Structure formats: structure tokens, C-alpha cells
Amino acid sequence: MHGLGNDFVVIDARERDVAITSARAQAIADRKTGVGCDQLILVEPSDAADARMRIFNADGSEVEACGNATRCVAMLLGGTSRIETLGGLLSGTVDGNGAQVDMGAPRFDWDAIPLAYAMDTAAMPVAWEDLSTPIAVNVGNPHVVFFVPDADAVDLERLGPIVEHDPLFPERVNVNVASLVDTDRVKLRVWERGAGLTRACGTGACATAVAAIRSGRAKSPVAVDLPGGRLTIAWAPGGSILMSGPAAHVFTGELELEDFG
Length: 261
Prior knowledge:
Helix content: 10-25%
Number of strands: 18
Strand content: 35-45%
CATH class of the largest domain: Alpha Beta
Number of helices: 4
Order of helices and strands: EEHEEEHEEEEEEEHEEEHEEE
Structural class: alpha+beta
Largest sheet: 16 strands, mixed
Low-confidence stretches: none
Distance between the termini: 23 Å
CATH superfamily of the largest domain: Diaminopimelate Epimerase, Chain A, domain 1
């Protein structure tokens, strides 16, 4: 499945246990010797929701949240569903060729991002070359958002991993560079923690829209244009983030788990 080109191997393990390790997830995600994907998604039974979603990045690391994958899982489950994740309980509603997902409330405290030490997350007094004064927000996973004149002009492939692995971020971080197009529209590129440059990042779109609204740069709802297409993000301070966008089933197949370690 994919959401705006952010692609996933989705394994339905609701009726049969499927053993996924970090090494196995990495092997399946390999685009040359595996199936190939940005993230591997494991859908399991849940006592607290309709299903539990586990998310493994292409490097094998397990993470808390993925907005595009949540829309895909909502499409898989159908109707209105509740989805358990490491980042909390989410709800999704299928809407035409996509889904709307309630991503929960964002967090802004420095230790909720988390950062290595206390600082103002609304205007962090730090810089990496020309990328400076980011806004930090946790939307189930950690993000920093840099507002720049031209998102396309940023060498994100080089700077992204430098910021991601900075000791300031003990759990690493997703890196967003955004340009304002209008008060209700933002252009965004994302270096995703553990996955690299992606065509779309749902949590990155959520974090960027929240940062734009919180800083007075934009008004809700915000259209977020990513290389893979557009997501619409609605948020009011104190409330939950609502993300709307497409999700698509590409193909169904079978694999032998033992072939992947």
C-alpha cells in the first residue's frame, strides 16, 4: 500500500502470529533484495482497539507513529476504526479513496519531544548551517520544522541525517523544511528518521501544519503539498490533529519469512 508514494509492506497478522525482528524488517524493506518499502507495517490483534499497528522503518528501527501508514491501515480495516500504536490510540474513517485520521493532540514540552535538555521548542536557539531556529513538536513521534524561503533549495539529503543524529535528539528526529505558499498552504520536504527522503510523510505534514498555525504563519485547515501529493491538516490549539488524504492498495502477495532471516 502507499499514501502519496510513501510505500509500505503491510502484513496482516490479526489471525496468525508473524514474527518480525529488526533484521527481518530491514531485509524485507530492501528494494534490491527484498520486497522494498519505506516502512514495514504489522497489523496485529488489540485488546484496546480494532487492531494494533506496529511500524518498522527501512533501517529496522521500530517507531511510534506514521500518518500515511495509519490511513492505509484505516483503509484495510474499513469504515470507522480505532488503531493502537506505540504513540497512542488513533481513529480513522474511510473517506472515498482515502481516509481521515485523528492523530491525537500534539505535544510541545522539551522533554516530550524529547530533547536532551530544556529549551524553548517554539523557537529553538540552534542551527545547522543555514537551517536555524526550528520549531519542535511531537505528533506521536519527534519532529523539528524549519521554515525556509525555498524548501527545494535545501540540501536535505546532506543536512537531514546531520540533524537527525544530533545528540540534542536522544531518540533521533524527523526533519521538515517548509515554505509558506499562502496562509492556508505550505510546501514541504521531509527527511524521515530511519527512512531518509520520502515522497510524503503524514506525521511530518501534521507537525508542520501545527507549527505553522501555532506560530501564526497559517490558519487551519492547512493544505500541505509534498513531492507525492497533498494532505489536508486541521488543528485548533488544545485539540486533536485531523489529517485527510489518499491511500492506495497496490498489490497482494506472499513471502517466505524464513528467507529474510
